[in-house]
Amino acid sequence: MPCEPALRIRLLFGKGKMLGPGKADLLDAIRDAGSIAGAGRAMGMSYKRAWSLVEEMNAAFRAPLVARTRGGARGGGAQLTEAGEAVLGHYRALERIAAEAGAAEIAALQAMLADMSDGR
Amino acid sequence: MPCEPALRIRLLFGKGKMLGPGKADLLDAIRDAGSIAGAGRAMGMSYKRAWSLVEEMNAAFRAPLVARTRGGARGGGAQLTEAGEAVLGHYRALERIAAEAGAAEIAALQAMLADMSDGR
DNA sequence: TCGCAATATGTTTCGCGGAACATAACGTCA
DNA sequence: TGACGTTATGTTCCGCGAAACATATTGCGA
After folding, report:
1. In this structure, is the dihedral angle defined by the CA atoms of residues B95, B100, B102 and B108, taken in order, positive or negative?
2. What are the tens digits of pLDDT across the range B20-65?
3. How far apart are CA B109 and CA B103, in angstroms?
4. Mean of the per-residue pLDDT values for chain B?
5. Between chain A's N and C termini, which has fewer beta carbons within 10 Å?
């Protein structure tokens, strides 16, 4: 974790349907870990919470973002679906684009801050 | 209130210094109401909370964003300083620019949502 | 000099999201 | 068939941020 982004973006489509940094990071972690449990461990989040976030995401989108399998040799696991990859990609792109397009405003605000010794 | 923005942006400069929709709206309300108490009433927020947010903001930036006066004919009041106007302006501009620059990604995500009957 | 409306600030209470804990079910392999 | 690691799901517990409540203070005007 090199540095937490200075710009956090949350998309909210009403009625409990929202997407922010937390869910995006979780998608990333699931892709890395290959399981919800592993992702939870990796980011210090309880399995139950990770699972419920996945539940929310799968419900919010037309197609599930995370595919899960139970049992089997290694107990089961979870992977990002094509939709999951797409959503994550779009979100990351949005983050990048917004930070880029808003760089001037962000810099202006940062310049007005008190005591920016470390700039973070 | 036409529609709450689908895009919420939070800027975080570490160590308790952060700026999001809540504080921005509060600045707006203070400019409208001419007082912290009035702003709090207008947005259904306790005076204490509004006051502490102002405190945070004034501490976070080099120059205070909100100028307060106590006592007097109408009890006192609060107005945005030049710095306050500037910060609010930069934040609103950032919101606008980000939403504009990220429109394509946002639309792509929205298109993948389930059941967007009301679009909100 | 008293009342008003606001700022200023401390103390206590409370709701809720998340943590912690507890199980069940699943499916492959040894 | 038993063990393992995961998904799946319910229940209870707890910390913390916000609300609620309580005062003190300021300065003008009636």
Report:
1. positive
2. 999 999 999 999 999 999 999 999 999 999 999 999 999 999 999 9
3. 10
4. 92
5. N
| Chain B residues lying within 8 Å of A97, measured CB to CB | 98, 101-102, 105
Which helix (H) or strand (E) segment is A79 a member of? strand A76-80
Q: How far is A48 from chain B (nearest CA, A)?
A: 24
The yes-or-no verdict on residue A59 having pLDDT over 70 is yes
Would you state the structure tokens that stand for residue A49, as one six-digit string? 């919470």
User: How much is the pLDDT for B16?
Assistant: 79
Closest nucleotide to the alpha carbon of B34, via C1': C6
Is A78's CB less than 7 Å from nucleic acid strand D? yes
Find, in chain B, the residue whose alpha carbon is nearest to that of A107. B90
What span, in angstroms and rounded, lies between the C-alpha atoms of A19 and A46?
Answer: 19
Query: Considering the entire predicted model, what is its pTM?
Result: 0.92
| B39 CA → D23 C1’, Å | 22
**Nucleotide C20 C1' to residue A90 CA (A):** 35
Residue A30 identity (one-letter amino acid): I
Average pLDDT over residues A12-21: 90
Q: Strands A7-13 and B7-13, how do they pair?
A: antiparallel
Is residue A9 helix, strand or coil?
Answer: strand
Tokens of A77: 């696991």
Q: Dihedral through CA B44, CA B46, CA B31, CA B72, nearest 10?
A: 130
Contact B98 A9 (CB under 8 A): yes
Output the distance from A61 CA to D19 C1' rounded to whole Å.
35
